[in-house]
Structures are given as structure tokens and as C-alpha cells.
């Protein structure tokens, strides 16, 4: 039964320019992340609650963290670091785990989007979500009286901390998503997040942990927390902590490259 | 292709003509999906070569992927994404995508609205999968069981669309286990079972039956009210002539295949009278692809049984 040619489906194949593909992928992923209730809770609601709760409760009981700084100036950078960690690690791991489960990565594998484009899209999507987090947490911090160190040094140091923290946590998140099933990834990513929130020196400075602080500074959470705090308190990059993050990034990328399965 | 010591696809050799519809037909586990995924570059053949549009699906992936459209067997979208969002996203990865509103209209995707993917019906997910395969205006589309889980309306629409693709010069390779689908659509049918090709040809060539050359074949199905008497098969065969094939399908039905001849039906009915069996139904028709398929897979099973004994 031959059908008449309509010309509607006449082949005209071709890939969109790679930049357009990456931007499309990033916007799509960011949109889905921000639409998901649990992800939003993790990305914005919990950090904001930690910030407000920490500052008000801390001031009420006259909390001394062993650093000679107003509490809000210590906690706001810590909460920003927490937000970076939740997005780059927990959200990314969970999203990627379910993408594998639902065959999204497999489907995209048959599209013109190359794997490197998919990765770039993911990193860019994380950047978009982090921008939203930065605005909200920054605004809440301002309301609570946060006064960050001003100047170009702060911006540069903060940017370096975000970049290195994202690389380190994203590579570790992909590693978890690549070796575990989707449900196990969900559980593990949330559990690790909670453990690092409590004992990872991310929100509270190392000085608050006493002797354990010497251990915590080698954790990616401690290093990220210190790097963001140093950026906003002193306005300079914390090279040593950035170095620790780099080591974690290399470790995470190597593990991911060895174990990650796209399907 | 071997999975854990089990051969999924073994020495399969087939080629597909441009601008045609080819159906790969086989029971579950026959190796249809493995064959397709090898063409799509998801799997590396352990032996042999695969060329798609003259390209190696693994080494030339970058050049090949924009030129083919792939419909996977189920899933392939974010659980919270809306149908049109997903289609728009895939379209943005291509240089000259189809108008997604037109495609959505043709496949009835507008009805999906804001429903997230995980809550779409199986048929809606299938139609979205087909739309994603077509949106990049490919030269060649691989569709894995395109109408599984679709209602009859959706199936009609899909068939119409696939024929239209062929008319516009798109090559279509589909897998199916609906014989009707292969018969309706395909220019070429390849029947595979346990990773091996067991028959190939146009639906007409296949239904004409093996060894019958150009002569037309008629099939008569006889169903009776009570079980056949012993020796019924042999006695009916004698009554019809040696070049007729009589198969006992179960205790109350037989299939007679032979030269298309106006007397066949009369002879069968006379045989019933003489043997005192009451026909419940007596139908005449061309051998269907289903007959071919059952013959072939049944035969294969028998030969293997002999080998093992």
C-alpha cells in the first residue's frame, strides 16, 4: 500500500552546533532540577533553614566558634559551601542515577549530543542552579547582617572555590551514580550529605571542631567550606584548600572514568 | 554476540535496501534488539562487520548518529519531563528538526499536556519515542517494537506514518513480534530465531511457501465438532493428492496446504461426509505469515531435538 510522498519527512539530517546542544542540555537539566520538589528542598530550603536557624540560635546562646568573627559572617559562607556541595554532589548523583535507570543517558547516546557535551551540559546546569542558590542564600545572609569582604579578590577566590568544589563533588557524585543502582544512589548520596553536614566542617569552621579539625580539613567538605570562608572573610584564595579539592577532583574523575557505565 | 556464554546473535547476515521498510521478526529473546543495538552502535560485534549507511557504528559514531533515528524499546526520557518538552529538547540537538507541533499533532502527543513522562500511558510513551526518533529528519530509522502497548488507533497511525516515511525516501528498520505488522508494512521480512536467520523475503514470497515456485498456494483450515478419528490425517491426504500438505493442529483442527485449486474445498467437504465428521468451520485463505513463522520455528525446534538425542 504505497502512501503518497508528502515531502514532510524528506531526510535532512545534521547536528546542531555543539554549543547550542550543550546550552539546550544545561537548560533542560537545570529546569528539571529546579522543578523537582526534593531537589529544591536540598538545594535551597535546607541551606536557608540552616542559615537562619544557625544565626538566630547561635546569637541567642552567644555561641563562640573560636574564630574572632560575627557569627553570620562565618555561617553564610559555610551555608553557601553547603549549597554548592548539595547541588554538585547529592542532586547530581541522584539525577544521574535515575537518568541511567530510565534510559535517558542511553537515549541521548543515540542523539547527536556527544558524551563530552552531555558532561558539559551537566556542569553548566549545576552552575545555573548554584547561581539561583547564591542569590537566595546571599539575600537571606544580607538580611541577617552578613558583611562579606568586598573587592575583586573575594570574587576571584569565591569563583575558584565554586569551580574546584563543583569539580571535586561532581566527579564523586558521578562515581556514586555510576556504581550503584538508582535507589542505592539516592540513599547513599543523601546519607553522605547528612554526614558531611554534621561532621564535614562545611557549615562550621574547622576551629569549631577542635583536634578533629585537622582531619576534617582534608575532607572535600572541609576544604570547600574553608575556601569559601577564606574568600569572604579575607578576600583571598585559600590555595591549600583549593589544592585539597583538586586532589579529590582527580581522584573522583579517575574512579568515575574507570567505573561509569552510560547505560 | 554472546552474553554470558549464551549466543544471542550468531552469524546473522542481512542487508537493507535504502528507502524500504524492513521488518525483523522473531519471538522474544530471538536477538532482534541485540541486532538493532549493534547497528545503533550500542554494542560492539565480537565477530563480523556491521556497516550502517556505509559507516562503522562505533568508529564513525559521530558522523552516523545525526543521520539515524532511534526508537528504543520503552523509556528514554526523564521521569518528570513533559512530552513536548522532551521532544523539543531532542529537536534542539539537530540542525534541521521537523516542526514539533506537526509531529505532535500527527502522533496525538498534544493529549499528553503537562503530564510527567512517568504518568503517561504505555502507548503515549511509545508515540513519544517514535516522535523522538523522527524529529531530526534522519535518513534511516531503527524502531524497536514500535507499536507494542499501543491501542489499535495508535497502531494505525504509526503504520501510516511509517509508510509515509518510506514514500519520502526514509529507510525504516523495525522489529516486531506482531506478524500482522510485518505483513502490513514490510517490503522485506527477516525472520530470526535464537540469533539465527531462518527465512527472508517479501511477505508475498514468504507466504507463497517454500518450493512452490510461482504457483499460488491455498490454505484450508478445517475445524470439526469432535476429535478426528485415528488415521484422519493420512486419509485426508490420500483424498487430496500427494502434493498436499496436511498438518494436524490439534485434535479438532487441521490445516491443508496445497495448490490453489477450486476442487480442494469440495474434496475436503466430501472427505468429512465420508468419514462422518461434522465440520464446525471450513475456511480458505492464503498462507499467513503466522503459518510460515510457526512452521519455521517449529521445524527448528524439531531438528534441534534430534541433534540433542
Blueprint of the fold:
The complex is a heterodimer of chains A (263) and B (309).
Chain A: H1 18-35, H2 37-60, H3 71-101, H4 104-109, H5 115-143, H6 152-179, H7 182-199, H8 213-216, H9 220-234, H10 239-259
Helix pairs in contact in A: 1-5, 2-3, 2-5, 3-5, 3-6, 3-7, 3-9, 6-7, 6-9, 6-10, 9-10
Chain B: E1 2-3, E2 6-7, E3 21-25, H1 32-39, H2 61-64, E4 68-71, H3 83-92, H4 100-107, H5 122-134, E5 140-144, H6 152-167, E6 171-176, H7 179-185, E7 188-193, E8 196-201, H8 203-208, E9 217-224, H9 232-240, E10 245-250, E11 253-259, H10 263-274, E12 279-285, H11 289-308
Parallel strand pairs in B: 3-6, 3-7, 4-5, 5-6
Antiparallel strand pairs in B: 1-2, 7-8, 9-11, 9-12, 10-11
Task: Give your account of this protein's structure.
Chain A has ten helices and no strands. Chain A is mostly helical and 263 residues long. Chain A has one domain (18-259). The longest helix of chain A is centred in the first third of the chain and has 31 residues, at 71-101. Chain A is elongated and about 80 Å long. Chain B has 309 residues and is an alpha/beta fold. Chain B has helices at 32-39, 61-64, 83-92, 100-107, 122-134, 152-167, 179-185, 203-208, 232-240, 263-274, 289-308; strands at 2-3, 6-7, 21-25, 68-71, 140-144, 171-176, 188-193, 196-201, 217-224, 245-250, 253-259, 279-285. The radius of gyration of chain B is 23 Å and the shape is elongated. At the A-B interface, α1 and α4 of A face α3 and α6 of B.
CATH topology of the largest domain in chain B: Rossmann fold
Supply the number of helical segments of chain A. 10
Structural class of chain A: mainly alpha
Percent strand of chain B equals 15-25%
| CATH architecture tag of the largest domain in chain B | 3-Layer(aba) Sandwich
Q: How helical, in percent, are the residues of chain A?
A: over 70%
Mean pLDDT of chain B: 82
What fraction, in percent, of the residue positions of chain B are helical? Answer: 25-40%
Number of strands of chain A: 0
Distance between the termini of chain B: 27 Å
Instruction: Name the CATH superfamily assignment of the largest domain in chain B.
Output: P-loop containing nucleotide triphosphate hydrolases
Amino acid at each position: 500500500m504505497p502512501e503518497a510522498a508528502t515531502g514532510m519527512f524528506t531526510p535532512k539530517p545534521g547536528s546542531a552546533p555543539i554549543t547550542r546542544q550543550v546550552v539546550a542540555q544545561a537548560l533542560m537539566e537545570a529546569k528539571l532540577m529546579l522543578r523537582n520538589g526534593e531537589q529544591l528542598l536540598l538545594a535551597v530550603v535546607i541551606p536557608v533553614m540552616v542559615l537562619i536557624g544557625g544565626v538566630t540560635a547561635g546569637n541567642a546562646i552567644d555561641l563562640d566558634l573560636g574564630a574572632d568573627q560575627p557569627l553570620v559572617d562565618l555561617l553564610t559562607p559555610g551555608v553557601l559551601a553547603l549549597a554548592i556541595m548539595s547541588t554538585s554532589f547529592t542532586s547530581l548523583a541522584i539525577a544521574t542515577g535515575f537518568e541511567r535507570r530510565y534510559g535517558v543517558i542511553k537515549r541521548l547516546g543515540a542523539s547527536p549530543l556527544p558524551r563530552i557535551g552531555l558532561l558539559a551540559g551537566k556542569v553548566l546546569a549545576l552552575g545555573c542552579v548554584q547561581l539561583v542558590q547564591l542569590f537566595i542564600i546571599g539575600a537571606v545572609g544580607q538580611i541577617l547582617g552578613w558583611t562579606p569582604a568586598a573587592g575583586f579578590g573575594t570574587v576571584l577566590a569565591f569563583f575558584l572555590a565554586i569551580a574546584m568544589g563543583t569539580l571535586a563533588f561532581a566527579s564523586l557524585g558521578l562515581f556514586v551514580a555510576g556504581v550503584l543502582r538508582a535507589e542505592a544512589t539516592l540513599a547513599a548520596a543523601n546519607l553522605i550529605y547528612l554526614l558531611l553536614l554534621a561532621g564535614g566542617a562545611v557549615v562550621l569552621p574547622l576551629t569549631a571542631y577542635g583536634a578533629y579539625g585537622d582531619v576534617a580539613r582534608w575532607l572535600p567538605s572541609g576544604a570547600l567550606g574553608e575556601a569559601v570562608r577564606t574568600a569572604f572573610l579575607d578576600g583571598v584564595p585559600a590555595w591549600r584548600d583549593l589544592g585539597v579539592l583538586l586532589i579529590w577532583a582527580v581522584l573522583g574523575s579517575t574512579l568515575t572514568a574507570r567505573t561509569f557505565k552510560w547505560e | 554476540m554472546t552474553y554470558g556464554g549464551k549466543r544471542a546473535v550468531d552469524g546473522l547476515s542481512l542487508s537493507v535496501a535504502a528507502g524500504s521498510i524492513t521488518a525483523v521478526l522473531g519471538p522474544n529473546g530471538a536477538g532482534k534488539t541485540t541486532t538493532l543495538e549493534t547497528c545503533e552502535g550500542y554494542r560492539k560485534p565480537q565477530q563480523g562487520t556491521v556497516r550502517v549507511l556505509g559507516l562503522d557504528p562505533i568508529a564513525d559514531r559521530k558522523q552516523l548518529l545525526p543521520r539515524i533515528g532511534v526508537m528504543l524499546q520503552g523509556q528514554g526520557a526523564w521521569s518528570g519531563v513533559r512530552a513536548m518538552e522532551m521532544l523539543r529538547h531532542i529537536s534542539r540537538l539537530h540542525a534541521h528538526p521537523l516542526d514539533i507541533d506537526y509531529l505532535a499533532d500527527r502522533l496525538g502527543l498534544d493529549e499528553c499536556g503537562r503530564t510527567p513522562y512517568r504518568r503517561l500511558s504505555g502507548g503515549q510513551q511509545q508515540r513519544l519515542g517514535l516522535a523522538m526518533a523522527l524529529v531530526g529528519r534522519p535518513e534511516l530509522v531503527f524502531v524497536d517494537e514500535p507499536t507494542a502497548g499501543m491501542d489499535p488507533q495508535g497502531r494505525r497511525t504509526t503504520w501510516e506514518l511509517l509508510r509515509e516515511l518510506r514514500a519520502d525516501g526514509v529507510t525504516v528498520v523495525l522489529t516486531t513480534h506482531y506478524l500482522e505488522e510485518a505483513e502490513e508494512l514490510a517490503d522485506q521480512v527477516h525472520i530470526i530465531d535464537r540469533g539465527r536467520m531462518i527465512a527472508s523475503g517479501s511477505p508475498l514470497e514468504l507466504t507463497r511457501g517454500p518450493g512452490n515456485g510461482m504457483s499460488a498456494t491455498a490454505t484450508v483450515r478445517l475445524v470439526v465438532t469432535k476429535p478426528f478419528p485415528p488415521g484422519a490425517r493420512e486419509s485426508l491426504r490420500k483424498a487430496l493428492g500427494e502434493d498436499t500438505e496436511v498438518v494436524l493442529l490439534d485434535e479438532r483442527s487441521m490445516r491443508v496446504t496445497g495448490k490453489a485449486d477450486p476442487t480442494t474445498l469440495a474434496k475436503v467437504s466430501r472427505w468429512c461426509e465420508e468419514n462422518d465428521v461434522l465440520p464446525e468451520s471450513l475456511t480458505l485463505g492464503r498462507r499467513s505469515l503466522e503459518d510460515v513463522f510457526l512452521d519455521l520455528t517449529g521445524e527448528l525446534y524439531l531438528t534441534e531435538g534430534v541433534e540433542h538425542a
